[in-house]
Amino acid sequence: MPDDNLPTYTLQVSADNPLHTILYFTHNGSDPSADFLLKRPAPAESRGRYALGLLDVHVSSLVYAEVLLEPDWAQPTLSAAEVRAQNGVPVPPIAVTPDAFVVSLYNPDQAVAVRRNQGSWKTDSWDFEIPERTFKMPSASQIDQDSAEPQVPEAVPKVTFRWKRDGRLSRDMTCYMTGRSVGGKKSKDPDITVAMYHGGKSETSVTIYEPNMARVEVEDMKGLEMTLLLSAEVIRDLYLSPRPDLFNTAAAPGQAGASTSRPRKGSRPSRSPPAAAAMSGALNARPQSPPTKPAPQREPRTAQTQAEIDAETRRLREMVAEEERRDRERRDREEQDRIKRMLDQEENDRRRREAEVEAETERLRQQYGGQGSSSSSSRPQDSGASSPPLPPRPNAGASWYGPPATHAPPKPPRPARPASAGPGQMRWSQYQQPPAPQHAPPQQQQQQQQQPQQNGGRLQHGLGKLLQHPYANNAAASVSGFFGSGGGGHRNDDERHREDDRKKKIKKKRSVHF
């Protein structure tokens, strides 16, 4: 608790009117005396704004200082559940407390701006400046005395004061006069305590630290005292412990001054004060302000319109998203159809190529298969016609395979060897067995049938039969060229080899194609 000897202002709510707060002053243990009155206007008279005035307790029309503040409007951010609960109804905007307010002093008129410095833990502070010279300089000139032009604010040196919160959860504050650098150096004077504010549940108090007031180089000490009292109470209402319905946004437009739709905590219906004492002198000096009260009403309408615009924007966004989704699905279907058509086309091409291959294969089979069979049946006859006839077999070829011997011309017999006559011929013919029957060309079979007829049925000696064997010509030719022509035997061998080569080529051709 501060010392009782220090100047202290105790704030107590009036029992007759909860909108009035009386400031009782004590010094050096004296009895409390009512010196000032803090007055708040009725909610209906200050709709959409915050107002607080410091008046004389005996003469309510005498105003020392006042604060008039309008909030900043912002659209609230709702969750999905809250949006569903609203059923599409636009949400009205909410009032946001500004970070600065102005304390207006009268006689002499002066505006002191209080700015909030929001920081981290236990660093919230509020700064304001008081000029060192407030009153006019004494002058004997009547022109200077009648001049009402204010001084240039930048040309007047000022002293900075700072309300600093004692703790994050505390409602107590301390006001310091910040030190100034001397001689342009970085070092400065230390901060000195000027006032202390104690915020209690039942009552609050502002204590002026008198020992340090002599070090405050301010000409208007009474103005500084009014600024300390009013700024401390406004900071409490706005930031330390905000009052319910601070900006009177819940009151109806045509509602009476005493009743509200959302009553304040600990408030009750108040008696209608006289019109002259409704608010401070600054408000009474502006009678045109009541007609401008509907101005805050335009904010909800504007906010409602903004909410409707936002709802329409969301609807259009959903519509655009739905159209994009449909276009995406349509493109996907078209791509699937294109791929399906491409696969079908490939399948048809494959089947067509297979059909062409099968048709070409069948054509080649019919072409080369028929030629191979016809060539195999015709070539042996051609070879038989071109090759020389072989000697007939004794008593076998004509009777088994050969046709009648009347169609071929007779062939002269070969001359017999001189040394083959004798009884040995008969003995050789008795032991010689006929060779195995073989297929021979028709002309050769005819020659074999005609041979016995030309011989007149006479038996030849055995060596003659051996010489008439198909393989005897080559053997006789190899021994000597005296009996028959040796070139004929070689010619028959060459023809036979060429025939064998042609047959092999035909077989090879068939195996390649089929």
UniProtKB/TrEMBL annotation:
Sequence ranges of Low complexity compositional bias: 269-278, 373-387, 441-454
Region (Disordered): 248-514
Pro residues bias spans: 406-416
Ranges of Basic residues composition bias in the record: 504-514
Domain of life: Eukaryota
Compositional bias annotation for Basic and acidic residues: 311-365, 490-503
Protein name: Uncharacterized protein
